[in-house]
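[INFO] parsing input record for Electron transfer flavoprotein small subunit
[DEBUG] input buffer:
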Amino acid sequence: MKIIVCIKQVPDSASIEVDPEKGTLKRTGHNSKTNPYDLFALEAALRIREKAGGIVTALTMGPKQAEEMMRDAYMMGVDEAVILSDPKFAGSDVLATSYTLFQGIRSLGGADLIICGKQTTDGDTAQIGPAIAEHLGIPHVAWVNSIEDISGEAITVLQKTGSCIQQSQMKYPCLITVEKDIFVPRLPSYKLGLATAKRSVRFLSCDALPDKNMSCFGLIGSPTAVERMFPPEVSDVREYIHGTPAEKSDRMFELLKKRKLI
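[DEBUG] output buffer:
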């Protein structure tokens, strides 16, 4: 089985910089980490490989510093790592990002199963996985809580929604996004780190993708625009409210109204 896991490197703290002209995050030169939700996707892929065999490839779009994240993926046990890296990809919104990853998957020859974390901690849209599936024209199930069965032709998964539990079976190729309670991610292995220290991470530029139409990539290919983006403001100002519950609620109402929050 050929499995591709889409992962992303996200800021490690709220101390980030924003490009004032493009309104996008500056992703280079700052502490970053693997998107926490993607660790569950990696673990799901590795467990499926243990049961059904095959190859697990980690795929991301990002700057060169994403190689550090891919080294961690190797230490968890993935077989291959590919980074889609090109200045032309900068400033991508959900549509352009999903299209770039879709092109990356095509350039790798496709996959039987594609796994994504349910969302990222920087964008929180939860749209990338389903959008990739739509580009590929394959079935998908989002927010999977458990994998019930894996066969040579299909995968059976379980979703727990607020009102029901749904079981779905999909034939390959297909895509799933997984919830954080699906598995406990394994820790990176020092032994695997030594074994994969010389294993290369493959970089692909826009020129290596099947579609080179620049109207689909980066800022040009992004139909949505962020009007303003800024780091959270840090404030040490505190006001403590004392009194009975009724007095506290009245005072809270006055403060919120004064600040025009209600």
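[INFO] The mean pLDDT is 91.
[INFO] shutting down worker
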